[in-house]
Design goal:
The complex is a heterodimer of chains A (469) and B (92). Chain A is 67% helix and 0% strand. With 469 residues, chain A is mainly alpha-helical. The chains are: A mainly alpha (469), B alpha+beta (92).
C-alpha cells in the first residue's frame, strides 16, 4: 500500500525558487538600467526642480536594484551570472525609455509608464508568492512599491508646479512605451505578448547619447563660474567679492559656503555621467557612484535652501556656473572622475571643511553648520569611493598611481586652458552678481548688531596655521 | 606600553598619546587640530609621514585601511588608525 497525506495547503505550482529568481532578476535588470538612465538624463536636465528630483530617484533606484540583486543571489541564482545574461527585452525596454526627446518627454515616459509597469510587476509577484516561504522578497517588494508610488506622486506634484501639462503633452510617448512593454509580455514577461509597435509614429529613434555639455535652468543668466577662485583673470569679480568680505568676513563665509554648495551640482553631474559611460563595471561601482552623485545633489540643494532662506531671489543673485562640467566635456570618463577625486581629496586633506564649520559656528549659523557637518561626512565617503574605484580602473600598482597622476595633471591643464580661453567671455564675469549681492547683504546687515568678532579665513587653500587658529 | 610624545615638525606643536589611543584621538584631546574626516582609515585625510619614531596601525583593522604597501614602506600612516610605539615626529 502506497499512500500520501493530502497537501496541507494549496500553493501556486509556479512559485518555486528558480522561477522567483528569474522573475526578480528581470526586475533587477530594469532597475539597474533605469538607475543608469536616470543618472544620464539628470545630467541632461536643466530645470532645477526636475533635476534634483531625478537625482534622488536615481539613488533610490540604486537601492531597489541592490535589494533585488541581493535577493536574486539568495535564491540560488549563480553568482557568476547575476551581472551577466541580462534579459534583452528588458534592456531594450529601458533603452526606449531613455530616448525621450527632451527632459519633459523622458519624465512623462518614466513616471507615466515605466514606473507604473514596474509597480504592477511587483504587485503581481506579491499576489502570487507565499508570504512565509518567500518572506524576504515580500519585505523588499513592499518597500520598493511604496518608494515607486511615492516617486510617481512626487514627480506628478512637481510637474503640476513646473510644467502643468507635462503628462498630457507626453501621452503619445507614454502610449508608445506602454506598447513596447506589452510587446515583451510586460516587465514580468508573463503577460500576453502583443506585436511590437514598429509602425508607431514615435518608433525608430536613434539610441540615446548623453550630453557632453550642460545647460543651466533658464531662470538663471548663463554663467561659466560661480566664485572668484575659479577664474584668476576675473579681477573685477575678485574685487567685487572683496567688497562683500569687507562687510564682514563671516558673512562672506556664510554666503561663499552656500554658493559653493549650490554649485556642487557639477560634481553630481560628473559622477552621474560616469555611471552612464562605464557600463560593465562591478555592481558596487554603480551603487557607490549613485550615492556619490545623489550626495552632491543634496549638497547643492543645501546651498539652494540656505540662499532661499535668506529671502533672496536665487536666480537673480546667485551665479550657477557650467564651466566645471563643460570644461571636462572632451575628457575621457576616467579623467573626469580622476579630477573630481583630486579636488575632493585635496579639500579634505587641507581641512577645509573643518575650517568652514568652525567659522560657521562662530557665526552661530546653526543651519550652515549642520549642512557642512553632514557634507563633510559625505565627502569622506566619496574620497574613499574615488580611491577604491580609480585603483580598480587604473590598476592597484605603481603604474596605476602614475597614470592617475598623469590623468589629473593633464586634466588640470585642460581646465586652466578652458579658463584662459574664456577670460574675455561676458559669462565669465562675476562682478555684476557680487555687486548686486553686496547691496542686498549690506541692507540686511543694517539691522544686525556688531559682535566685534573677527576670523582668520582661507576658504580654498587651508593650512595648519589656520587649523590651529 | 606607556605614554609617548608626538611632535609636529612644521608647527612645533607637541602632545602626549596614551597607550591604546590613536594619534588623532590624542591630538583632539590635546586641542591640536589636525585634518581628518572619516576616523575609519578610508578617506586618507589624515595620511601623514612619520619622520622619526615608531607608529603602527591598529592590527584589529589594519587590513581594511586605504593605504598601500608603498606608502607604509615610506613611513606614511593614517593618524586616525595609528598607535604610537615610541616618541614620534610627524611631517605636519
Amino acid at each position: 500500500m502506497v499512500k500520501v497525506l493530502p497537501a496541507s495547503r494549496t500553493a501556486h505550482a509556479d512559485v518555486r525558487v528558480d522561477n522567483a529568481s528569474q522573475y526578480l532578476k528581470r526586475c533587477y535588470v530594469v532597475e539597474r538600467q533605469l538607475m543608469r538612465t536616470l543618472a544620464a538624463r539628470f545630467v541632461d536636465t536643466s530645470q532645477w526642480d526636475f533635476k534634483r528630483q531625478l537625482s534622488q530617484d536615481m539613488w533610490e533606484t540604486s537601492r531597489h536594484a541592490d535589494a533585488l540583486r541581493t535577493r536574486v543571489l539568495e535564491l540560488r541564482y549563480p553568482r557568476r551570472d547575476v551581472d551577466k545574461k541580462y534579459d534583452p527585452d528588458m534592456l531594450a525596454l529601458v533603452a526606449e525609455c531613455a530616448k525621450g526627446q527632451d527632459s519633459l518627454e523622458f519624465i512623462g515616459g518614466v513616471y507615466g509608464t515605466l514606473l507604473p509597469e514596474l509597480v504592477r510587476a511587483y504587485q503581481d509577484y506579491l499576489d502570487q508568492t507565499d508570504p512565509l516561504d518567500d518572506a524576504p522578497s515580500v519585505y523588499i517588494l513592499r518597500h520598493i512599491i511604496a518608494d515607486k508610488q511615492a516617486q510617481i506622486e512626487r514627480m506628478r506634484a512637481l510637474a503640476e508646479q513646473v510644467a502643468p501639462r507635462l503628462f498630457e503633452a507626453t501621452a503619445e510617448w507614454q502610449d508608445y512605451l506602454r506598447q513596447c512593454c506589452a510587446a515583451v509580455g510586460g516587465i514580468s514577461g508573463q503577460g500576453t505578448r502583443t506585436p511590437p509597435p514598429l509602425n508607431h509614429s514615435l518608433a525608430g529613434r536613434p539610441a540615446y547619447a548623453i550630453g557632453r555639455s550642460v545647460q543651466r535652468d533658464s531662470r538663471w543668466r548663463p554663467a561659466l563660474f560661480h566664485l572668484p577662485h575659479e577664474n584668476k583673470y576675473d579681477v573685477e569679480g575678485r574685487k567685487a567679492w572683496q567688497r562683500i568680505e569687507a562687510l564682514d568676513k563671516r558673512v562672506a563665509m556664510q554666503v561663499w559656503s552656500a554658493i559653493s554648495h549650490f554649485n556642487e551640482i557639477w560634481a553630481a553631474e560628473v559622477v552621474a555621467a560616469s555611471m552612464w559611460d562605464f557600463d560593465t563595471q562591478p555592481w558596487d561601482f554603480y551603487l557607490d557612484l549613485a550615492r556619490w552623485s545623489w550626495d552632491e545633489t543634496r549638497h547643492s540643494t543645501m546651498g539652494y535652501r540656505a540662499l532661499q532662506g535668506w529671502g533672496w531671489n536665487v536666480p537673480d543673485l546667485i551665479p550657477w556656473g557650467n564651466a566645471l562640467y563643460n570644461a571636462m566635456g572632451p575628457m575621457p570618463p576616467i579623467q573626469r572622475l580622476a579630477l573630481l577625486y583630486y579636488y575632493e581629496d585635496g579639500l579634505l586633506r587641507a581641512g577645509t571643511k573643518q575650517i568652514e564649520i568652525k567659522i560657521l559656528e562662530s557665526a552661530q549659523d546653526d543651519g550652515g553648520v549642520q549642512d557642512m557637518d553632514f557634507d563633510w561626512a559625505d565627502e569622506a565617503i566619496h574620497v574613499s569611493y574615488g580611491y577604491t574605484w580609480l585603483r580598480h580602473l587604473l590598476g592597484d600598482n605603481n603604474a596605476g598611481k602614475e597614470e592617475l597622476k598623469r590623468l589629473t595633471d593633464e586634466a588640470r591643464e585642460i581646465i586652466a586652458a578652458f579658463v584662459a580661453q574664456h577670460k574675455d567671455d561676458p559669462q565669465a564675469k562675476l562682478a555684476p552678481y557680487f555687486d548686486r549681492l553686496h547691496d542686498v547683504i549690506a541692507s540686511m546687515l543694517q539691522d544686525i548688531p556688531d559682535d566685534n568678532l573677527d576670523v582668520h579665513w582661507a576658504p580654498v587653500v587651508a593650512d595648519e596655521e589656520v587649523l590651529k587658529a | 606600553m606607556g605614554q609617548f610624545t608626538v611632535r609636529l615638525a612644521k608647527s612645533g606643536a607637541q602632545f602626549v598619546v596614551e597607550s591604546g589611543e590613536t594619534i588623532l584621538e590624542a591630538a583632539e584631546r590635546a586641542g591640536v587640530l589636525l585634518a581628518f574626516s572619516c576616523r575609519g582609515g578610508t578617506c586618507r585625510s589624515c595620511l601623514t609621514r612619520v619622520l622619526s619614531g615608531c607608529a603602527e596601525h591598529d592590527p584589529e583593522y589594519a587590513d581594511e585601511l586605504n593605504i598601500d604597501a608603498g606608502e607604509l614602506a615610506d613611513h606614511y600612516r593614517l593618524l586616525c588608525s595609528a598607535l604610537a610605539c615610541s616618541d614620534i615626529e610627524l611631517e605636519k
